[in-house]
Design a protein that fits this description.
about 70 residues, ARM-like, Armadillo, ARM-type_fold
C-alpha cells in the first residue's frame, strides 16, 4: 500500500540529503511538508524512515522552519 511507498521515498530522501546541497533542494521543491504528514502513518517503519529523512533535511535552517510550521513537534 501507500505506507510501503512512503517508507521507501523517505529512505531515498534521507540518503540523497547526504550529498551536496540536496537537503536545500528538497526544501525548495516543497518536499518537507508532505514528509511531516508521513508521521501520521500507523506503520513504525514509515516513522523510522521519515524521522531519518527529517533529521537530514533539518540540516538546512529553512527546512526546520517548514517542519515547525507543519506541526512536526506536538
Amino acid at each position: 500500500g501507500n505506507d510501503k511507498l512512503r517508507r521507501y521515498l523517505a529512505e531515498a530522501i534521507a540518503c540523497c540529503c547526504t550529498w551536496g546541497s540536496n537537503c536545500v533542494s528538497f526544501g525548495e521543491a516543497g518536499a518537507v511538508a508532505p514528509l511531516v504528514h508521513y508521521l501520521r502513518s500507523k506503520d513504525p517503519s514509515v516513522h523510522q524512515a521519515t524521522a531519518r529523512a527529517l533529521f537530514e533535511l533539518s540540516k538546512d535552517p529553512n527546512n526546520c522552519i517548514t517542519m515547525h510550521e507543519n506541526g512536526v513537534v506536538k
